[in-house]
Amino acid sequence: MFCPDLVLVGFGNVSRRFVRLLEESADELRGVHQIDWRVVGIATARHGVARNLRGLDLSRALELVERGQSLAALDAPEQDGGSFAAPAASGVELIEQMTEAARAAGSVRPLVVVETTVLDIGAGQPAIDHVRAGLRAGAHVITANKGPAAFAYAELAELASAADRAFLFEGAVMDGIPIFNMVRETLPAVRISGFSGVVNSTTNFIITAMENGREFAESLAEMQAAGIAEADASLDVDGWDAAAKASALANVLLDARTTPQRVERTGIGHLTGEAVRAAVARGNRLKLVARGARRGAEVVVRVGVEELPASHLFATLGGQQNALQLETDLLGSFAIAQLGGGLTQTAYALVTDLATLARRSPSIPGRRSTDAPRRTSH
Prior knowledge:
Elements: E1 5-9, H1 13-24, H2 26-31, E2 38-43, E3 49-51, H3 58-66, E4 78-79, E5 82-83, H4 91-104, E6 111-115, H5 127-136, E7 140-143, H6 147-163, E8 167-168, H7 180-186, E9 192-198, H8 201-211, H9 216-225, H10 234-237, H11 240-253, E10 264-265, H12 273-281, E11 284-295, E12 298-309, E13 322-328, E14 333-338, H13 343-360
Parallel strand pairs: 1-2, 1-6, 6-7, 7-8, 10-12
Antiparallel strand pairs: 2-3, 4-5, 9-11, 9-13, 11-12, 13-14
Helix pairs in contact: 1-13, 4-5, 5-6, 6-11, 8-9
């Protein structure tokens, strides 16, 4: 049985849906996948911190946060004859405190940091520091944040390998659709030379809505209300979210050393309903497309609006649908599409990463230990 203690850094929409998915799937996770989890720490920016090495009351935690109240009522600083040094003031401090307390208590349960803070497009912080802190403290780390893979993948992958711990981020691109797991687990000896895709649900929804006569602002507001669009609308509209995903894909699949700021980028803010509908009248559709390819020793990554023929795979995508196409040496070109995405799918990616840890756990007979990162472009 794989029995992880989870430390949640961030407790927003994705993290709360993740917790509910764990509870909804508890019987299958324990019975089929042999995962017996508990949450021992939660750190938030607005609702404080809660710690309990015996496991937190998640129903109460969800209730408190969704009412806008503090998690302090759940904090249990006295633990098994000892106590935490001081209240944790940040995600990094919570990670450090929980790992130290677990060691002091003699816990043999593996610690897993689940990082779901908001994307910082400037530097990928504080998510990168959370991942570093978790790995340096001896914890596995899973995240739905694009920042760590988009800004610091090589460093963090090497840190994870040196620590014999996992750094997983399936939710960084296309929600729960298995892009990174697919490449890592099912494409041995395949060299990836490039990718292209429609990877931002919000912009695709807005373009589709404008094709049907709706207004830009109205469509964006609908996606924000659903919790799908970024709180800062410019991250979607100006192409930054797509650039972060393209950067993550390039770093992981093509062994690039890029960041979103180095991605050639244009968004959809300049588009009008008239321009979108004119493309349809010509038998085409406008799409925000992310592309990355190896050009000799260089990896070129860009994001921009493209007018595609209606027969093109990406042109068939409507609403929140996404797709990613990979260029490979042995398999040629192939694509994977997401025909419906949203909050549950993003949260599910965290569940799949947890299941990946279980598959690798030596505590389950026949399972293999943590793999070193595989450089798919070599």
